[in-house]
Amino acid sequence: MPVLRSLRVAALALVSAAALALPALPAQATGPNVVVRWNQTLLTAVRTGTLGPPQVARALAIVHTCAYDAWAAYDAVAVGTRLGGSLRRPAAERTDANKAAAISFAAHLAAVDLYPAQRATFDALMTDLGYDPADTSGVPARTGVTACQAVLDHRHADGSNQLGGYADTTGYAPVNAPVVVADPLTSLNDPGRWAPLTYVNRAGATVTPPFLAPHWGQVASFSGAARGLADAVPPPYAYGSSGFRTQAAEIVSTTAALTDRQKSIAEYWADGPNSETPPGHWSLFAQQISARDHHGLDQDVKLFFALANSVMDAGIAAWEVKRDHDSGRPITAIRFLYQGQQIPTWGGRVIDGATWVPFQVPTFPTPPFAEYVSGHSTFSAAAAEVLRRFTGGDAFGGQAVVAKGSSQVEPGVTPAQDVTLRWPTFTDAADEAGISRRYGGIHFRLGDLQGRALGRAVGTAAWDRAKAYWSGRG
Fold first, then answer.
1. How far apart (Å, rounded) are the C-alpha atoms in residues 57 and 48?
2. Pfam families under this entry (predicted)?
3. Which of 14, 218, 293, 418 lies 20 to 30 Å from 405, alpha-carbon distance?
4. Which residues, given as ranges, of the chain have pLDDT below 50?
5. Where are the domains of the chain?
6. Which CATH number is associated with domain 29-470?
């Protein structure tokens, strides 16, 4: 695990009690409940897996929906997302122990379905929790498995093509030929459209990743509103227009004048390969809120259910916009616009615009999908919306420390001193996630701001839908 990633994860997991003003908990209350345990284990699978952000968001949503539907059978009011109230157990059985068992068998079934190669990890958690994953004879186990299987049956036909390895089902093909990152860019068929990139990855292999999941806008959304909200997003600036030139010039000037804090923000929020990705990042924040607010099992089932489904819908909506406009990333648009011109860039250099690169690790210079809108902005704004509504306010109090010299872009140099990132509110964290992609040279201003607006709308719709389920309205 790289230094920055290791430090960031540690900082997220160990935000100090002083920073969050948390009182000490009694010894018997310090362990996380099964909802948090399954979330932690799933994020471990995410970090070692190969799924991209929208698929990770869907995986989180499926596991937490299975957990919620299993739990709903032991609640007096809530209804499940697929089977309604048909699994409801009598009042005498509605104990925390039965809820935990049903949740665990449901989450195990979902996790194995999504990450079959990591079954041993999920089996180990079941054993640690005191369950035999092969023994589904008990009522809670049967309830959890039945609830989850209905969710899986639905999601296997939801348009994601999970059973086909998430392969594109739409026949997408880029209009531009691959751009070799190491070479100056002199030609593009359409500089306003997305182009694949060829570069050397961290394993030392030369790769040209295709557009990630161009069919994702067709995935069935939790709220039913994601695609409609996406289709209402205004188009990006046309390449060469005054608005486009202004935001391109802003990226050039911003990345050329990055401070250590801005560089730390860009790297902290990058969430690229071998990370929990942006959706998982907000699940880590939810774990902090669970600890901060001393959640019980019932609260966490609802929190993670609403949060995970909001980020799944955010991925669906963002990818619908990305596919609709197929917009070019700064790495190609700026190179084409400024080719033959001397421009400033990060590190105090002056370069030919045709060779410009964002402030990113060279082994992953830009994610492989269209620019508009920003996925980071959409995921983060949706998650922040749910966290605000669930907690009844915007107060967060999160923080992370980026260690001196821990940069992967400028190792040993940046930052010159430890940098502490603080987010008094959920909104602050979401906004910083959005602007981090502009600091990193990954997104233009409009892609960030419209992504934030889309995320807030998606989060609101997902919240309303989740609340209807646990209020018994379905």
1. 15
2. DUF6851, VCPO_2nd
3. 14
4. 1-29
5. 29-470
6. 1.10.606.20
